Fold this protein.
Amino acid sequence: LKYSVFSLLKNAFSGHQNWAPAWRDPAPKPEYDVIIVGGGGHGLSTAYYLAKEFGLKNIAVLEKGWLGSGNIGRNTTIIRSNYMLPGNNPFYELSMKLWEGLEQDFNFNAMVSQRGVLNLCHTDAQRDAFARRGNAMRIDGVDAELLDAHSVREMYPFFDFENPRFPIKGGLLQRRGGTVRHDAVAWGYARGADLRGVEIIQHCEVTGIDIVGGKVVGVQTTRGPIKCKKLGLATAGNSSETAAMAGLRLPLESHVLQAFVSEGLKPFIDGVVTFGAGHFYVSQSDKGGLVFGGDIDGYNSFARRGNLPMVEHVVEAGVAMIPSLARVRVLRSWGGIMDMSMDGSPIIDKTSVNGLYLNTGWCYGGFKATPASGFCFAHLIAKDTPKDVAAHYRLDRFERGYMIDEKGQGATPNLH
Amino acid sequence: MLITCPHCGTRPVEEFTFNGDAAPTRPRSIDAASMPQWFEYTYIRSNPKGWMDEYAHHSGGCRQWLVVTRNTETHEVKGTVAARDYAKKKAKAR
């Protein structure tokens, strides 16, 4: 069934009681050609592109919880392609292009809203760095505009421009950046994959990986053993655990990142604004809540909840940037677990085990990468060679000295 | 999260700066042949789900380096020792 205005009208007349489920709920078969572990954004998009772009059949996605129960439903929904390094930005720009056509492509309303992403700068040096990054973006064909303080003031007159510690001197604006409804991304990819024959098996936790003669032959799960020819791991937050089942040790630490939403407000902020110097960023959801966050808590965690000092820090930074926020009440806060890689960039690569593929290390940039991550991971699994724009995301780059360290901070995952 | 510093007593978590897993041991050799060990030490992490020994600097207190034993699933803190004592114990165990 294709969603359209006609299907909407037809179902409206029957009180929306007769919509078919958007995807099936199959029991696992004894064998698949390709198994993807992880039914989140990246796993589902991988399965979708494997079926749609690379024509593979007999694919399963195994999810230990329910579909989209991980970071795809816990992030702050921002999309952008404002990176600097040649290993990164062409990849994120592919992702942005896929976002731009996504809803038509998978026939699902993901509420892609290119409302602009503005990074604020507070010193001359930071403006120089933004100019450099903006130029690097434009070399890669990405839109970037360097704004002076006056232009930022026209957009957001209620910011604290005269803040004594961080006066706002301007910003770098990517107008094509914005927000997407995160749950709908998981649902759209799930439905699109399911329509193309992919079996999405929920509540099926992988407990072991079967390797014979250096080659993957299947997985052990809580719903019995399943054979496969190729196995892709897209298990953000738990990548070290799943990779350890195949005897691999990864250059990763798991860290907790918190996010917050305020009570619903009338239209207040129409774009996404980041205050990197103070560790704060904000956008407003269509329901009216301000969605905001800051940095990771800074210690290894699998707890999916953070501690109060970071809550205080984020809120302080927010009020420093927008004094009127002081009167807004926070509705909810939550945490997600990030695979923090040693250089702050992801890994999409083959492994030393034949037929085992790895998609990990997204730090807190995983959501915006969802379409390109799935596309490139599917390319790698289907063709056994990396897609050009993801060719730098190798697992062995740390050993060989080819880090993609956007922030230039070295092997310190809690600083990326 | 409360951490009991061996020098200052029980203090709130925001006084501490974390610096990751204390388990990796710095190689002693600088020979080219030791490069794989340096790679392991610098980049590879066990990333334990559960109990973990980690470096913490009491940056808002006595400014001493400590090793905190903390559960990464529950954030429960079991114990804290001075980093120097931890290193001595680790050297003895090797």
Notes: The longest helix of chain A spans residues 89-106. DSSP finds ten helices and 18 strands in chain A.
